[in-house]
Description:
By secondary structure, this protein is α/β, with parallel strands linked by helices. It is 25% helix and 30% strand. A hairpin with a 4-residue loop joins strand 4 and strand 5 (92-95).
Amino acid sequence: MTASGSFVIVGAALAGAKAAQTLREEGFDGDVVLLGEEDEHPYERPPLSKGYLLGKDGRDAVYVHPREWYGEHDVDLRLGTTVTTIDPAGHEVALADGSRIGYAKLLLTTGSSPRRLPVPGDDLDGVLYLRRLADSDRIKETFASASRVAVIGAGWIGLETAAAARAAGLEVTVVEMAELPLLRVLGREVSQIFADLHTDHGVDLRFGVQVAEITGADGRASGVLLSDGSRIEADAVVVGVGITPNTGLADAAGLDVDNGIRVDARLRTSHPDVFAAGDVANALHPLLGKHIRVEHWANALNQPQAAAKAMLGQDVTYDRVPYFFTDQYDLGMEYTGYVEPGGYDQVVFRGRTDTREFIAFWLAEGRVLAGMNVNVWDVTDPIRALVTSGRPVDPKRLADSDVPLSGLLG
């Protein structure tokens, strides 16, 4: 199909690049303008705390497309470009250089930013956040020269960074306010497994503590002072305490904003010609019947493809089940589904947790809400089928490795 008028995408990371790709694959022959603040052409973020940070993947492996792809597909990629305002009524975006770009449809893939740690010393050299490619480069350089690192926050970024630091031979201390890592995401039953994983690999875990100050000497971080008065000496401090969706442009433009930019199941905002996708989008999920905002790679990969098709007028909704993965030491994991904190009444394990080869299922009233396979592969499709069916299953059969997952719905 063809359409007239410019389609503008604000945000040149994975989501923006995949939206541009989809527009061309779907036959859109109008102007596609992709605007990004960074000087790097669009790249994927998982390698920044996984393969690239570990030195297993080269720099070229992080990019969504080769640099020349954009010119070859008539995508006007403008890097180092800041959008200052959007005008939905006038169908224009304003840039920092004073120029304006008109659009027929606009897609916001503005992503998110690391939440800053509001304590004294947060601006010292050697206090590191991981979000951009340059951040990963800086952390790799630090790991090459440091001997001790403190990681503040035991979420996915914190734990993956801790694993990379241990692989580089550093002494690692992880500081976390909660009682266990990933407690809100996984619940107590599974969080303990990740705590044991890091303890077994020599990480000093400090739970139930708060950071009072990042200490420094000669302008550089030298450690962490906890609220109980104890100190952690470190050559660098990595902070991973969550991210905040970049909703400033949408908010100023009068679009509905609530824990992200609120969009319907077609990824359309409160203005019919403005769409949003990726980390920044709080989207109505048809299967779950509620708005959710997903901060993971698979969402940034797939959601903008649906948004691009909706921008072209196709009858499409985004109903994929959330999916994410992690690699830490010798543990590989995939998670399929969605569970709100405390929103389950039972966890069923299939396999052996002691050897970290198992599948964990979160259930509510017998229905599978999510499944996480750890060092067990090629099971995401049957797990997804259990989640999307909405049908109760027998927990005993679910736990029995001799019963095929595909047979549980028979």
